Amino acid sequence: MFLNENAGAASDGPAEGVAVLEPVTGSETRPRRDRPWYVILHDDQLHTYRYVIEMLIDLFKMSPEQAFLHAVEVDTRGVTILARLPKTEAACKRDQIHAYGGDPWLRSSVSMRASIEPCDD
After folding, report:
1. Is this structure's pTM higher than 0.85?
2. Among 53, 75, 84, 109, whose CB has the most other CB atoms within 10 angstroms?
3. CA terminus-to-terminus distance, the chain
4. CATH code of the domain made up of 33-118
């Protein structure tokens, strides 16, 4: 119901000459969600299992068992997917890996290498 300005009474439609805006529907009204990205750890043969496990527990709050499984995977396959996060969070985790420092048990000053990639789904 619309208020008719001339009569001060309710009517079934808009007053003459008044434009009616249609609601926007579909994807335009939904906020665009940040597409998930993978955080990928790369093997480099410069870090011990102990270093990898401790780093993953510290940065990703993994259990020792989860961290060990990722250490085995990165050692045997060359890469392991550590997390699936929004792009800004994934980039932050990648940067934390790069800033974590070297492996003190090998006296290495080089951090591990990590990357982020968009998820396919």
Report:
1. no
2. 53
3. 45
4. 3.30.1390.10
